[in-house]
Amino acid sequence: MSERGKTKFQIDLRRHLRERNVAPDLVHLICEIAEASKYIINSIRTGDLGVAGTSNLYGEQQLALDVLADRILTKRLQHSGVVGNVLSEEADDIICVSNNCNGLYSVAFDPLDGSSIVNVNLAVGTIVSIFGGCNLLRPGREQVAAMYILYGPRTTLMYSTGEGVHEFGMNQLMEYTLLQENITIDQQANLYSPGGLRNLFTPAIEEYVQKLEEKGCKLRYSGGFVPDINQVLIKGKGVFLYPHLQGKPNGKLRLSFELNPMAFLVEQAGGAASDGHGPILDRVPEGKDDRAPIFIGCKEDVAMAEDIIRRYEE
Ligand code: AHG
Ligand code: MN
Ligand code: MN
């Protein structure tokens, strides 16, 4: 496989999954999610950017697009024939699709991440976490797959089933074809994406950001989790943080459908993802709306965050 985009021939998503001996029902599930993304793309390009007049269980106002994207993906999963339970960022409860989950998968997803920046035409995405069986509230390390679709100037899809991380691009026929496989991240970052209000940073986070700046890291923050993580994977360098803040010990991002899938992908690429004390993937969820601080990207920079936080807690 040559570098990005110069494949000898177009390998599509389904073929790539089959050639890596992914279980047929998981191939079907991942391809169904990819198919649903085409309708989400259409709703972003042409849809109503207004508010839906409802809010999700986080009390966040839902945009019409949030609700539409949630409906598109939920329906597709319900009719896939391989799904047991569904947990969406936009829904109040876990949706039980089948009582008998043997051989089925359960899916947690953020149908439209970054919906607050879609009306200023910045890149947004769909984030998906897949477990085997019924139980979705398990440590992220037990995921069998994770993926995201990035709706940017180009539409790209990133997935891992535990055998490396692979990127696909949407072609003019709206097919996802392989751009690069087995993506890896370096040990050291040269860019950083600091989420959260700076005036709420703790002294430990202030020192961490200062250390990143001192080593020459550039600040790159779009406000969209998917493009900001995609930047780390494609450049192979970088660290994203949405830390604990004064008054917000768990930061902002949600464990089930934002942090677990991204942590799975980044660890598969040789990076790390921590809540500031230990791996995100080892956190045992207490509920479906758990939030956690996140430091994710180059291993050495994630370790540096843990070291500084530990020192301030001694
Ligand atoms: P969502 O649109 O699903 O609510 O997620 C938005 C998240 C994530 O995309 C991003 O990293 C973070 O919110 C940005 O938060 P701030 O606006 O506080 O920076
Ligand atoms: Mn989100
Ligand atoms: Mn969202």
Strand order of the largest sheet: 4-3-5-6-7-8-9-10
Determine the CATH topology of the largest domain: Fructose-1,6-Bisphosphatase, Chain A, domain 1
Radius of gyration: 19 Å
The total number of structural domains is 2
Task: Provide the β-strand percentage band.
Answer: 15-25%
Mean pLDDT: 94
CATH architecture of the largest domain: 2-Layer Sandwich
Low-confidence stretches: none
Largest sheet: 8 strands, mixed
Number of strands: 15
Give the class-level CATH name of the largest domain.
Answer: Alpha Beta
Structural class, by secondary structure, is: alpha+beta
What ligands can be seen in this structure? 2,5-anhydro-1,6-di-O-phosphono-D-glucitol, manganese (II) ion
Element-level helix/strand string: HHEEHEEEEEEEEEHEHEHEEH
The helical percent reads: 25-40%
Report how far the terminal alpha carbons are from each other: 48 Å
* Helix count, DSSP H or I runs of 4 or more residues: 7
Q: How does the overall form come out from the CA principal axes? A: globular
What is the CATH superfamily label of the largest domain? Fructose-1,6-Bisphosphatase, subunit A, domain 1
